[in-house]
């Protein structure tokens, strides 16, 4: 016969228990579920991401209406149980009495509110449920809004980080000497504090809150030392206490929490309790793993199966995007304990293990937590670690096979072991070449052996071999960071953008742990380019991260005016085009007209407000932007070729125009200038360009990596192709390879020198599949890039760029 | 007597996030900046270095980088950051709701 089961509390523990129950004995119970919140079970742990705006409420719902219906659960959400009558076996609520055969109390916990003046003011919130989150989100919506979070524990810091992400000024007040003192030791607490301060959160430790100030609404928080922090919202996150009121009223045995035995049964055999409201062997739990364990045990007890809850070790992870922090077990100092500490200040890594008799008691990991689960596993099992003590702190990767010294593993490799799979280079080839040629740098080893010169995944191994061969003489080259906002170099950032599929600048800065809140004038344009290049169809170009020239599609001059260069395809123009330019120059009183080195015409000294009209007039004559301001394709310079020239071997003008029409509009790491000469006399000066073509009788010689600016350098020859089509494909593929691999602002000649001319030849000329893939990716990205920016703006786009916000006149002032 | 005049010059959303707009006032052009966290600042639109239009620079944290020679200017104080020395004049500016108010003292004198 069906028994009546009443569950008080619709939190994470009760949701999990019902799942187990319906699985073990479907239909055995007629379930009524009470919940004080007007909604069903959701994953409370994920409230922080909801507050941060990284997740929505819908994404954290664990049980929806359908699930309750499918299991015939009578849901009484928004209805608080006020009383339990144990004799009559009924519970009381707003709608009357509900009888039970078995009762499960899962009332969870209540936030602890410090008893100070002002604690009841509107604007003082806990961080406990979705209503709190909604209130905080609403407060964060006001520009310049300020939040004070009282409590620097797990919950308080997650709230603080999330509110900061929402743009609020956030202060964290913490009573103790360092953050998260229950989970962290002072050193890790310090690193965490530094990280959060770096995000613009103010941390005030040893802060005694005296009162919350305000009349009708919270206005500020006053500390004992007299400090006042203005606040539009105050979040109390100082702790929780088990919610035991109805259990006390019902006369159940309650200490700090509702006392239960191993079967989760309270002092009344028909009443069970689970979750944060419970006390088991004098311990109250607040983390989810033990609560789930309780849920499992309670479900079994209800269906009369044997199960026992045993005290568990718990591990903690802070859910703040970009902060990696893990702590488990007990790490207090004591006579009979030892500790192993690893600090890497440059990488922001801190690890500490506390041992007793060769067994791990506690672990704190900051900055690098991938070994957390491994340490935790040994902690729980009480594994004897004496065998691996020396390298224990370095993590699992350094263990196994009895190898304790990481270098020993490389030293022990046989001479014919393949180190670089891409280029088939074995160990003896690398060590031999290092000695023979006296190589001391990774670049030199790459140049001579090709090891680690392609995909780079064996770089670590190659560096270890160098260390092994050269001893202390080897000093791995430090990566130059992109800028002061990060320790990562351009190459690492580019790789991580792709590997982690990062598609916005804030995502890059979060995931790669940028040290500033929104980057600087160096990294933002670089990141914007990388994202435009890697996700052409998905990334929304951030114009505020572009240099002014690219933002307004003209070149800023020293007096704040602009110059405008329309495209003249391949340097060819006509009477109509020249007439249109002359008219524009007259109409807008353009002071200077100059022929550029790229075979086109530059109009200088145009007022910013006039730009859209200038473009509109030029557009009517068929002109589009010449991108003279862009890190992108500038010009393709040509000579007159076989059309007119008695020496011309091919139609160099036609090829130049074709290339320019195919490639205009694409963004590149730095500017790209090209040229096509109709014969080896090279009148178009193709051999000092980023990419150049020299036409010969037998076809087209493709050149690249020239320079004629800060540096002067003749081009390298890439190879000879027979047809115009092939020439175009090779040039496009080369440009795409450069787009994908180069560092922002790195011209082709520098990039090519860095990765090697042969590597480029191998990928672009010798490998048709690779070439085609590069070509296709370029063509795909052009679909989104080939939009004339001038006509867009002439028809009203980005109007705000070109007009003053307001013009204040004398009359207005008086 | 010096008078402070507050002018409503527009709304918060008129300025792009991490961007700037200009306000023309007689002889002085004022750049009004909006930071990533929706704070508003106003500076004379003139870099202390070579007079570059700061309103055209990239806005990051509480600073703007001048488009001409990459001087970094504090939006709050107008002072050049790092090793560079110099300052541009800050103007008082306030956000009331989403309305931006710009404060000018003795504007008649300045414009004259």
From TrEMBL, chain A:
Domain Nitrite/Sulfite reductase ferredoxin-like: 557-620
Origin: domain of life: Bacteria
Alphabetized CDD domains for the sequence: NirB_Fer2_BFD-like_1, NirB_Fer2_BFD-like_2
Nitrite/sulphite reductase 4Fe-4S domain: residues covered: 630-766
Domain NADH-rubredoxin oxidoreductase C-terminal: from-to ranges: 315-382
Cofactor note: Binds 1 [4Fe-4S] cluster per subunit.
One example of a Gene Ontology biological process annotation: nitrate assimilation
SUPFAM superfamilies: FAD/NAD(P)-binding domain, Nitrite and sulphite reductase 4Fe-4S domain-like, Nitrite/Sulfite reductase N-terminal domain-like
Protein family (similarity comment): Belongs to the nitrite and sulfite reductase 4Fe-4S domain family.
Protein name: Assimilatory nitrite reductase (NAD(P)H) large subunit
Organism encoding this protein: Chelativorans sp. (strain BNC1)
From TrEMBL, chain B:
Molecular function GO labels: 2 iron, 2 sulfur cluster binding; metal ion binding; nitrite reductase [NAD(P)H] activity
EC number(s) reported in the record: 1.7.1.4
GO BP terms, alphabetized: nitrate assimilation
Keywords, sorted A to Z: 2Fe-2S, Iron, Iron-sulfur, Metal-binding, Nitrate assimilation, Oxidoreductase
Entry superkingdom: Bacteria
Ranges where the Rieske domain occurs: 6-102
InterPro entries hit by this protein: Rieske-like_NirD, Rieske_2Fe-2S, Rieske_2Fe-2S_sf
Protein name: Assimilatory nitrite reductase (NAD(P)H) small subunit
């Amino acid at each position: 016969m069906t028994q009546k089961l009443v569950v008080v509390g619709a939190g994470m523990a009760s949701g999990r228990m019902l799942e187990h129950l319906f699985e073990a004995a479907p239909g055995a119970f007629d379930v009524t579920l009470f919940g004080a919140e007007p909604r069903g079970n959701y994953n409370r742990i994920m409230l922080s991401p909801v507050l941060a705006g990284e997740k929505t409420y819908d994404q954290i719902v664990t049980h929806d209406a359908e699930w309750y219906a499918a299991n015939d659960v009578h849901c009484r959400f928004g209805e608080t149980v006020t009383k339990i009558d144990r004799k009559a076996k009924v519970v009381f609520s707003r709608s009357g009495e509900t009888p039970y055969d078995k009762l499960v109390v899962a009332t969870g916990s209540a936030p602890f509110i410090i008893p100070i003046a002002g604690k009841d003011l509107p604007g003082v919130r806990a961080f406990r449920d979705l209503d709190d989150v909604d209130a905080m989100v609403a407060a964060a919506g006001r520009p310049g809004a300020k939040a004070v979070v009282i409590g620097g524990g797990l919950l308080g810091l997650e709230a603080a980080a999330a509110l900061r992400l929402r743009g609020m000024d956030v202060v964290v007040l913490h009573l103790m000497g360092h953050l998260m003192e229950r989970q962290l030791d002072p050193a890790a607490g310090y690193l965490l504090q530094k990280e959060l301060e770096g995000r613009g959160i103010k941390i005030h430790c040893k802060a005694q809150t005296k009162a919350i100030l305000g009349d009708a609404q919270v206005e500020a928080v006053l500390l004992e030392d007299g400090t006042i922090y203005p606040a539009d919202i105050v979040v109390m996150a100082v702790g929780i206490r088990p919610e035991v009121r109805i259990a006390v009223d019902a006369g159940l045995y309650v200490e700090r929490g509702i006392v239960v035995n191993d079967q989760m049964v309270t002092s009344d055999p028909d009443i069970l309790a689970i979750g944060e409201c419970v006390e088991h062997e004098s311990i109250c739990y607040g983390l989810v793993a033990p609560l789930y364990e309780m849920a499992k045990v309670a479900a079994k007890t209800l269906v009369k199966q044997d199960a026992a809850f045993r005290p568990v070790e718990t591990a903690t992870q802070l859910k703040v995007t970009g902060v990696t922090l893990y702590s488990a077990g007990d790490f207090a100092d004591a006579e009979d304990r030892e500790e192993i500490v690893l600090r890497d200040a440059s990488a922001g890594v801190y690890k500490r293990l506390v041992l007793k008799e060769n067994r791990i008691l506690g672990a704190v990991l900051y900055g690098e937590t991938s070994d957390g689960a491994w340490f935790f596993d040994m902690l729980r099992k009480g594994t004897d670690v004496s065998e691996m003590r020396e390298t224990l702190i370095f993590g699992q990767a350094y263990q196994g096979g009895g190898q304790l010294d990481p270098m020993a593993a490389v030293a022990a490799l046989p001479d014919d072991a393949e180190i670089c799979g891409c280029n088939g280079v074995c160990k003896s080839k690398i060590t031999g070449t290092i000695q023979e040629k006296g190589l001391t740098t990774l670049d030199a080893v790459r140049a001579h052996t090709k090891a680690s010169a392609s995909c780079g995944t064996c770089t670590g191994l190659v560096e270890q071999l160098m260390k092994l061969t050269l001893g202390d003489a080897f000093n791995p080259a430090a990566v130059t960071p992109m800028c002061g906002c990060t320790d990562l170099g351009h190459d690492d950032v580019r790789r991580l953008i792709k590997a982690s599929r990062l598609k916005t600048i804030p995502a890059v800065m979060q995931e790669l742990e940028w040290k500033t809140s929104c980057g600087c004038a160096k990294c933002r344009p670089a990141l914007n380019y990388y994202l435009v290049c890697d996700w052409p169809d998905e990334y929304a170009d951030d114009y505020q991260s572009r240099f002014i020239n690219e933002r307004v599609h003209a070149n800023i001059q020293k007096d704040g005016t602009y110059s405008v260069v329309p495209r003249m395809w391949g340097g060819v123009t006509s009477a109509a085009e020249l007439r249109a330019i002359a008219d524009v120059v007259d109409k807008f009183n353009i002071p200077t007209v100059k022929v550029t080195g790229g075979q086109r015409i530059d109009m200088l000294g145009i007022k910013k407000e006039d730009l859209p009209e200038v473009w509109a007039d030029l557009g009517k004559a068929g002109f589009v932007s010449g991108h003279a301001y862009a890190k992108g394709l500038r010009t393709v310079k040509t000579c007159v070729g076989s059309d007119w020239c008695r020496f011309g071997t091919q139609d160099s003008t036609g090829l130049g125009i074709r290339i320019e029409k195919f490639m205009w509009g694409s963004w590149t790491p730095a500017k790209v200038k090209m040229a096509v000469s109709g014969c080896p006399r090279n009148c178009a000066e193709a051999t000092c360009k980023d990419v150049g073509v020299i036409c010969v009788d037998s076809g087209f010689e493709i050149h690249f990596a020239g320079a004629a600016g800060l540096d002067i350098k003749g081009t390298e020859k890439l190879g000879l192709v027979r047809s115009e089509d092939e020439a175009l494909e090779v040039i496009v593929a080369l440009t795409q390879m450069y787009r994908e691999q180069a560092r922002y602002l790195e011209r082709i000649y520098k990039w090519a020198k860095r990765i090697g001319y042969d590597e480029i030849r191998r990928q672009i000329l010798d490998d048709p599949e690779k070439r085609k893939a590069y070509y296709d990716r370029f063509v795909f990205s052009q679909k989104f890039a080939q939009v004339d920016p001038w006509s867009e703006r002439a028809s009203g786009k980005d109007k705000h760029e070109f007009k003053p916000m307001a013009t204040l006149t004398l009359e207005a002032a008086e | 007597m010096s008078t402070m005049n507050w002018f409503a010059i527009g709304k918060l959303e008129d300025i792009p996030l991490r961007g700037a707009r200009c306000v023309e006032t007689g002889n002085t052009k004022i750049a009004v900046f909006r930071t990533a966290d929706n704070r508003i600042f106003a500076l004379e639109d003139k870099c202390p270095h070579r007079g570059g239009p700061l309103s055209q620079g990239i806005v990051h944290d509480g600073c703007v980088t001048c488009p001409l020679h990459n001087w970094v200017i504090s939006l709050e104080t107008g002072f050049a950051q790092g090793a560079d020395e110099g300052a541009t004049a800050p103007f008082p500016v306030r956000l009331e709701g989403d309305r931006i108010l710009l404060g000018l003292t003795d504007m008649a004198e300045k414009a004259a």
